[in-house]
From TrEMBL:
Organism: Phoenix dactylifera
GO annotation, biological process: carbohydrate metabolic process
Pfam families in the cross-refs: Glyco_hydro_17
Keywords: Glycosidase, Hydrolase
Protein family according to the UniProt entry: Belongs to the glycosyl hydrolase 17 family.
GO molecular function (one): glucan endo-1,3-beta-D-glucosidase activity
Membrane-crossing segments per the record: none
Record's protein name: Glucan endo-1,3-beta-glucosidase-like
Gene field: LOC103711795
């Protein structure tokens, strides 16, 4: 996308911006925005219609939480890049049996790989910390070698997704204080080192909404929607105007503290509910998601101008999720009408 000259201009501008502590908007390179496609509903559109909706909205990437044959079929020749999840219930068998991992890759990846653009396999979702946590890294290794056997190891990256709530990211503000919980750290440390060493991103879910709901008296509203012009958190040379950046940068710092130097991340989930509870309105959801999409190309203060690949949570409202806000993260109703307008161009 860039010529060398542009790259220099971008880095000079980034240096000036960080010296002055100001924001200079400069278009960044290829920025990938995806949307999570959760399927916990009995009234959702057929996968082929859902895929058409992705295409009509110019959405280039999808996160699917577990394999679904109808979705994989619908994705054929769509050019939509796919992050495919391995359910936590499969972690143990995939960690302990190489042939189970081979079988999984054969059945859900290799069988479609000619016509579906797999980009990541997310081995486990928020499995760390927890009962399945110790299976995550061995399952990642087995899936990786199964992909190698299938000749797909260069195309498809193997990672895992983790939350950034207190159970994982115990300390997050200011970001320089970022620290993983001791509970998560045992299993997360080797994963983070492994990913950093191999240049594969850690997948993180980032929900300022949940931090806000947990502490609304201390977290100001102007800090949530990417529209504050004032610095809310000053952290040495870094100035923060939104909570999202604080959380992401705290993950970088926490990773460095456990030996994961230069770890990269992909935001595999971030969103805001439009109904069902405190702070959940269509206007808030629209503002958060639209400004998120517009923001992530700039990176965060600690990784300025490094475009952050981000998956908005989520495509549809899901009526089989727990009652309350959980059912209202969708940008579309199950009948495919928008809950609020969004622009992904
Ligand atoms: C981290 O990245 C910097 C800048 O690209 C590089 O100089 C350094 O060697 C890297 N460190 C490791 C441990 O990979
Ligand atoms: C930022 O967006 C939120 C949500 O739409 C809104 O309530 C707030 O007034 C906005 N703040 C500024 C400074 O524009």
């Amino acid at each position: 996308m860039f010529s060398m000259g542009n790259r220099n201009i971008v880095s000079i501008a980034a240096i000036i911006a960080s010296i002055l502590g100001v924001f200079i908007p400069i278009p960044t390179g290829a920025q990938l925005i995806g949307v999570c496609y959760g399927m916990a509903g009995n009234n959702l559109p057929h996968p082929s219609d859902a895929v058409k909706l992705y295409q009509s909205k110019n959405l280039k990437a999808m996160r699917l939480f577990h394999p679904n044959r109808a979705v994989l079929e619908a994705l054929k020749d769509s050019n939509i890049q796919l992050m495919l999840g391995v359910p936590n219930t499969d972690l143990r068998s995939l960690a302990t049996s190489r042939s189970a991992a081979k079988h999984w890759v054969q059945k859900y990846v290799k069988a479609y790989s000619q016509r579906v653009s797999f980009k990541y396999i997310a081995v486990g979702d928020r499995a760390i910390p927890g009962d399945q946590a110790r299976y995550v890294l061995p399952a990642m290794r087995n899936i990786h070698s199964a992909l190698s056997s299938a000749g797909l190891q260069d195309r498809i990256k193997v990672s895992t997704s983790v939350a950034t709530g207190r159970e994982v990211l115990e300390q997050y503000s200011p970001p320089s204080s970022g620290r993983f919980s001791s509970h998560a750290s045992t299993q997360l440390t080797p994963v983070v080192r492994f990913l950093a060493k191999n240049g594969v991103p850690l997948l993180i879910s980032v929900f300022p909404y949940r931090r806000y709901v947990g502490d609304p008296n201390h977290i100001g509203v102007d800090y949530l929607f990417f529209n504050s012009s004032r610095t809310v958190v000053k952290d040495g040379q870094y100035s923060y105007q939104n909570l999202f950046d604080v959380i992401v940068d705290a993950v970088y710092v926490a990773s460095e503290k456990v030996g994961g130097t230069n770890l990269t991340v992909v935001v595999s989930e971030s969103g805001w509910p439009s109904a069902g509870g405190f702070g959940a309105t269509k206007e808030h959801a629209r503002a958060y998601n639209q400004n998120l999409v517009n923001h992530v190309g700039q990176g965060t203060p600690r990784r300025l101008w490094k475009s952050l690949e981000t998956y908005v949570f989520e495509m549809f409202n899901e009526n089989h999720k727990p009652r309350g806000t959980e059912q209202h993260f969708g940008m579309f109703y199950p009948n495919m009408q928008p809950v609020y307008p969004m622009n992904f161009n």
